[in-house]
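How a chain folds remains the central question behind the approach discussed here. This step matters because it turns folding into a mapping between discrete strings. The sequence in question and its structure tokens are set out directly beneath this paragraph.
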Amino acid sequence: MPIKEFETEQLGKIYVIKRKSSRHLRLTIAPDGDIKVSIPNWAPYKSGLEFALTKSEWINKSRITKHHISEGQPIGRSHHIYFQPSTSIEKTKAKTYQNQIIINFPSNKNLNDDEVQEVARKAATKALRKQAEILLPQRLATISESNLLPFSEVRIKQLKRRWGSCDQSKRIVLNLYLIQLPWELIDYVLLHELSHTKHLNHGSQFWSLLESMAPNAKDLRKALNSYHPNLIEA
């Protein structure tokens, strides 16, 4: 998926992405504030940049709204997060008990306070990383073995835009936010990266291999595009 990054004074970074499936220009703002413009393959990157700039006022208004972690929100496959006010503490603290993340915060604040949310984000991301480091390598190994596509190494990282990557030495990197996706989409990403152990580019041979293992790959790819690598979906 070709992508070009622009740095602007008005809006900061803008990512223009060429997609085969795109018929029109489409602007999205990720939960972390990243601006993404999808354009058809034939369109010049500059057209995506200019389109974003014409929407500057709307983008800035949209960025004002923060997406908060909410009471009882699921975190990955096994955790939920809960907020508890306390009169006996001055700073917000996080504790994890089995599959519960408890955020204790001073009673003069509320759960949408910036400090409370920052502590909650760090605790939730830590829990996600633990889950991802256990579950994703296991799943990758199983799929690798069943499809005869060996890899040399797997690492879990916190990535902003990509779900994963594979280099020429067959080292695979997986985004820890993958663990929040439905299993069928996780498996699609794992198959995608394993296919790169045979074909590093996105040429016809790559897609043929991937679709031989996942006949509904096009539908899965389309479904994946509705998610963003982030703690909270907008």
The longest helix spans residues 114-146. Helices lie at 45-54, 56-64, 114-146, 183-195, 204-213, 217-224. The CA atoms of residues 57 and 63 lie 10 Å apart.
